[in-house]
Give the backbone structure.
Amino acid sequence: MSSHTHHLGIDLGGTCIKAVRVTRAGDRIEDANLPFEDRNREWAGRIRDFVQNSTRAHGPLASIGLSAPGLAATGGGHIAFMPGRLMGLEGLDWTAFLHSPKPVPVLNDAHAALLGEVWQGAARGCRNVFLLTLGTGVGGAALVDGRLLKGHLGRAGHLGHVSLNFEGPLDDVGTPGSLESEIGNKTLRERTGGRFPDTHTLVAAHRKGDADATRIWRRSVRALAVGIASLVNVLDPEVVILAGGIARAGAVLFDPIREDLEKFEWRPGGARVRILPAQLGDLAGAYGSAWNGMQDKL
């Protein structure tokens, strides 16, 4: 098979880079997980080296797509807004930086993860779906009538910043009582009076029958279920995908969510939304970036 039919997807995270080289049909040729220290634009050099090494090993690429945290520019050529970390990412022209003969389109990381799951994962064939990434914070993305929802500034899909309590504490973007505050790892210490450092520890204690852990976990899951039910009313999806580290809790997360949705979800004609775990794991964003690179949008 000619390497000219290969497409590269790169997903730049906070501490590591995920990359996947695929055919147009989505068959994986190569993948990589490249950790880095967030200093002196080390991540940029790691990405450029990987592209060069992949090209040497497997031949030229038909396209490259990239995703990263932050808001992608309206034209899709770079990340326009990413304060506080990955210094040098804002405004970086990836087409020029990677010496690519074709434009390198850039997406927000959660947007890319959703596109990956729609292309090759849990939401294959769906036209209305939203994704929540449950980890340090709560990210998100939505596909509506087959189109990725981006919005006026690229803000669309920040589903973790919907409010569940208008009197709650403000989150990073100023939303009171947000979904992110109710289930994200970043607030767990304060939500548990310092007892649990992360959700993995909380879930482990819940599994062992710790009554306090069970109470805290069920409250967090109920908040997530209420958030999902609210977003279902806005976006009317066929499928909701849960991704990220917290979603790996498995049945201990999915079973109570489904129980809560029996109470909270509006089900016209008895229709119910499917709640599914992500299938592509840490490579979802890389797959979505690869797919986006094939689209010749720029």
Q: What stands out?
A: The two ends are 27 Å apart (CA to CA). The chain has two domains: 3-112, 125-278. The mean pLDDT is 94. Residues 211-235 form the longest helix (25 residues).
